[in-house]
Amino acid sequence: MKFLLVEDNRDLANAIVSRMEMSGHVIDHAKKLEDASGFVATGEYDLILLDIMLPDGDGRAFLQQHRASDFDTPVIILTARSQVSDRIGSLDLGADDYVTKPFDHAELEARCRAVLRRRAGNTKTAIEIGGIMFDPVAGNLIVRGKAVTLRNRELRLLELFLNAPGQIFSKSKLADRLFSYDDDVSENAIEVYIGRLRKHLQPSTLSITTLRGLGYRLDLDG
User: Fold this and answer.
1) Which end of the chain is more exposed for a tag (fewer CB within 10 A), N or C?
2) What's the distance, Cα to Cα, between the start and end of the chain in Å?
3) pTM assigned to the model
4) Helix or strand or coil: residue 158?
């Protein structure tokens, strides 16, 4: 998954980024609302972690503005404010959840998973299709009864394809979803990850089709 963190506290931001990256997620970090707006305008995110008090404004205004423009990316508010009225106000503006600082990072990860499951209309995390069973939360892939070890980006690439089978993903789109803004990415890197994932899926009836000039698509054979 690709997350956007909007947080001006450097130590907290570093801790969140480190934790999420260890879990295999890609995460961009904005220190102020202006930067956050730039990230949202140029990239796609599965989830936004949004602080309220930022140097150039209130995160709730950012949320309200984007919700008014049919922006439907899930948002979890991060704030030191613990009053019930604050939580209700943020939820009414369109937040999907609310986490009060200080918080346990394991709890934050669990809330992220819960919000993403709810948005997908799914209470289960495991996906079974074409001879594989894949659990993106646990990072487990079983192909024809055999456990397969995936590297973090291979895992996220498979998750991306399984969430949209039949959809065509260009190399630039895949790079945007698999790497952070600061990463230096070449098209060859995408080809390498596609090649590795194809090998992992070979015993199954799933295949990744190359569409010249367009990109890649996950297909169910047979």
Assistant:
1) C
2) 29
3) 0.72
4) helix
* Sheet of strand 2-6: strand arrangement: 26-30, 2-6, 47-51, 75-79, 97-100
What pLDDT is recorded for position 138? 74
Q: Are residues 99 and 151 in the same domain?
A: no
Provide the β-strand partners of residue 142. 133, 147
Q: Which of 80, 77, 84, 141 shows the shortest CA–CA distance to 112? A: 77
Give the integer Cα–Cα distance in Å for 141 and 119: 23
CA atoms within 13 A on the CB side of 151: 9
Tokens of 121: 């209309």
For 145, phi and psi rounded to 5 degrees?
85, 0
Provide the residue range defining the domain that includes 161: 127-220
Please check whether residues 189 and 85 belong to one and the same domain: no
User: What is the per-residue pLDDT for 176?
Assistant: 85
Mark whether 138 and 76 lie in a shared domain: no
Distance CA 24, CA 220 (A): 26
pLDDT of 72-118, one tens digit each? 899 999 988 766 666 677 777 888 998 988 888 888 988 888 888 78
In the prediction, which pLDDT does 24 show? 79
Domain co-membership, 138 together with 96? no
Listed as ranges, residues in the chain with pLDDT below 70 are 82-87, 120-125, 222
Peptide bond into 74 cis (omega under 30): no
**The total number of structural domains that make up the chain:** 2
Q: Determine the pLDDT at residue 167.
A: 93
Return the sign of the alpha-carbon dihedral for residues 42, 163, 166, 172: positive
